[in-house]
């Protein structure tokens, strides 16, 4: 345990999700399918929104930004996890591990800010329709994603700064399939109680805080919609899509960072949700119930197949 004469850890070993061949095969098939579907679905949204001038409005720009982030979310941990599934010795270099933490927090933090911006956008559209276009001007629309990225990056840099100088000198096995802070910190050969508290306070408070802000905003919007009851069903279907995405995204996160009794096996399978399932579900939830989005996607598909106009 003394930091002076111990060998320095240069790589970490993942225990992975399972050692049973049947489960590995099942996970391999499911993860590959969901990963491919996430990538295709989110690419389709980004390109449809960019290509179709009917969708050049703040709501769709924000949605395209969310899809762009989801491409990142599903590519940070999932490809390596899939590649590792059948390997006996699943390793990741120290740098790779820090990179995963950096991207997970940068993209996750950005996504939280963006989800709040999307809630604000719906609030304006539903509760302040007359002021909507003046407030969500093109300038504001460009500032929102930029702000989200800056805040996400700041959050991530702070998190990485906590761990990058920790001494790792002995144990290097992570009961997980990707690197993240709560587990990595436990491997450091130094006293880390204070650090664990910082991480829980930082990531935990941010997730719980943004989740509460989002829940309160959506309740507020729902109540407003209810009182005026005009366009109720359309508003409800849009809002329920947003609320579903928010719950799916934050549920597992809040569990990792704030649940005081670590149970890595449950953690691991919940992590699969955020790693693969949520990025896959976002396009499904937002698009399948939205006529304009579906029309734009079909148009794009026809154009890709070489038709000038929809047949
Ligand atoms: C993100 O939003 C901005 C404006 O709100 C838009 O110009 C940009 O194209 C969007 N990014 C993507 C990847 O769609």
From TrEMBL:
**Is-annotated flag, keyword Repressor?**
no
Question: Which Pfam family is one of those matched by this entry?
Answer: 7tm_4
Write down the Gene3D superfamilies for this protein, in alphabetical order. Answer: Rhodopsin 7-helix transmembrane proteins
Q: One cellular component GO annotation, for this chain's record?
A: plasma membrane
Note the SUPFAM superfamilies from the entry. Answer: Family A G protein-coupled receptor-like (SSF81321)
Please list which residues make up the signal peptide: none
What the entry lists under CDD domains is as follows:
7tmA_OR4-like
At the top level, the lineage of the source is Eukaryota
Main localization category: membrane
Q: Which residues form the G-protein coupled receptors family 1 profile domain?
A: 41-286
Topology relative to the membrane, per the entry?
Answer: Multi-pass membrane protein
The entry's localization annotation reads: Cell membrane; Membrane
Which UniProt keywords are present, listed alphabetically?
Cell membrane, Disulfide bond, G-protein coupled receptor, Membrane, Olfaction, Receptor, Sensory transduction, Transducer, Transmembrane, Transmembrane helix
What name has this protein been given in UniProt? Olfactory receptor
Which lineage ranks, top first, belong to the organism behind this chain?
Answer: Eukaryota, Metazoa, Chordata, Craniata, Vertebrata
Give the encoding gene's name: LOC105985473
